[in-house]
Design goal:
3-stranded mixed sheet, alpha+beta, globular, about 100 residues
Length: about 100
């Protein structure tokens, strides 16, 4: 292959890749990302679920007992989860505590 053909082929690949993603768009939340967020925020677990009516997943986190309440302010663990989820696209976040 000549250098000209390689350049044209490389430009074609870049153009096709640009069509499949939108620059600046947040990634969709994945199961591995939910688990990593749970670990980083010291939650018991993090999983995702899918609703048939939405293309985006929902995040579910299990927290240690008492971790979701902080009186009249947002609990630190809930604030941590929300801040880390801000980097992703998802439908809803639900919290449950270990009983």
């Amino acid at each position: 292959m000549t250098a000209k053909r390689i350049t044209v082929a490389a430009l074609g690949v870049v153009a096709l890749a640009a069509c499949t993603t939108t620059r600046g768009e947040k990634p969709v939340l994945t199961a591995s990302a939910a688990k990593a967020i749970a670990r980083a925020c010291h939650a018991v677990s993090g999983t995702i679920g899918h609703d048939r009516q939405s293309a985006l997943p929902s995040a579910q986190f299990v927290l240690p007992l008492g971790a979701s309440s902080a009186g009249d302010r947002v609990a630190p663990m809930v604030a941590c989860l929300g801040a880390r989820l801000a980097a992703y696209r998802y439908e809803t976040m639900s919290l449950d505590e270990v009983r």
